[in-house]
Amino acid sequence: MTAGESHGRALIGVLQGLPAGLEVNIDFINHQLWRRQQGYGRGGRMKIETDRVEILSGVRHGRTLGSPVALMVENKDFVNWQEVMAVEPRQIRDEKRARRVTRPRPGHADLAGGLKYNTHDLRDILERSSARETTMRVAIGALAKLLLKEFGIEIASHVTMLGAIPAEPIHDASWEEIKAISEADDSPLRCIDKEAEARMIALIDEAKKAGDTLGGIFEVVAHNVPPGLGSHTHWELKLDGRLAQAIMSIQAVKAVEIGAGTMVSRLPGSKIHDCVGYNHQLRRFTRASNRAGGIEGGMSNGEDIRVRGHLKPISTLRRPLESVDINTKEPLEAAFERSDITAVGAAGVIGEAVVAWVLADAMVEKFGGDSLGEMKRNFEGYLEQLKNY
């Protein structure tokens, strides 16, 4: 669970279910938070915040206790918003100081939230609906990544399209390529095709001059995932459904693909399904391809899990779209809050975090254990079962 507003005092997260004995590397968590803030086309907020996590509970002497872990990331910008975001009752008569929002931004939660919660200051909605909330999801996802690493599972992401560049999204990049670009701290957009990346940067510059925004596609890949996570028995246990919901919950994501994605509706079965083989030396089943994206029947099948998120252009434009004042009902330009030109690369890092949480949850679900040692024993017994199948 997460809590906190974009310009409030802090973001809070609580994670329950981590086994006792997991080594917690705060530097690793902070590096994931840093990765989320990078990327060409990000806005001014990234220059204000230097996100650092503080662990409030659930960890002692660098290891988890098995109790809930509470995290906090301070909002540095809160110093400029203390009156506007005060917890105590306030009557701010100066409209400029009050920063009330009455002109909903098309594409945002502003109007739908205002109608739902019957508020005439849409700041009540936009402060929580802001993508700033994903900061804590990345921190929690970093803890999930640390757990998955103990079982040899790694997660990485890359940008496969930005705007309409390249003309077709990058498909079938190898795990090695994706891992390398995902970990390259100096990559402006985490795209493996450098020629395409240069054109993406030029397109971002054009959009900035025009006061416009851009969307794109990111792909998250989970490597070395064992078969059998998730279940076919109930709809809410299906791993692909859980991953799709997690990716779709990221602000601005409007479509999710797993494996071949939308191509499955265009091609015959002979060109979609992955033929099964067996490696006698490794004593494991193999696939000639991975169009299923590592999931069949709601369960991981042992291949890399590949999931893509399609990000719409950021809804806050420097050249505002047409809107209406919710009080006067008069046509006006939409409100403007600080905004990015694009955040596709950052969305990939957030995608890694939510995929890590879903997979870690599925691992705890299957292998249980109050301590990391107990969970590892259960896991190793399962691997032996697979070899003897």
Stretches where pLDDT falls below 50 for ≥5 residues? none
Largest sheet: 4 strands, antiparallel
Q: Count up the helices.
A: 11
Number of domains: 1
Number of strands: 16
Give the N-terminus to C-terminus distance in angstroms: 39 Å
Summary of the model, kept short:
With 389 residues, the protein is of the alpha+beta class. It has a single domain (2-387), classed as Chorismate synthase, AroC fold.
Task: Fill in the keyword field for this structure.
389 residues; alpha+beta; Chorismate synthase, AroC fold; four-stranded antiparallel β-sheet
Can you put this structure into words, describing what you see?
It is a single chain. With 389 residues, the protein is of the alpha+beta class. The chain contains eleven helices and 16 strands. It has one domain (2-387): Chorismate synthase AroC (Chorismate synthase, AroC fold), CATH 3.60.150.10. Strand 12 (295-296) and strand 13 (299-300) form a beta hairpin. Helix 1 packs across helix 6 (134-149) and helix 6 (134-149) crosses helix 10 (344-367). The protein is globular.
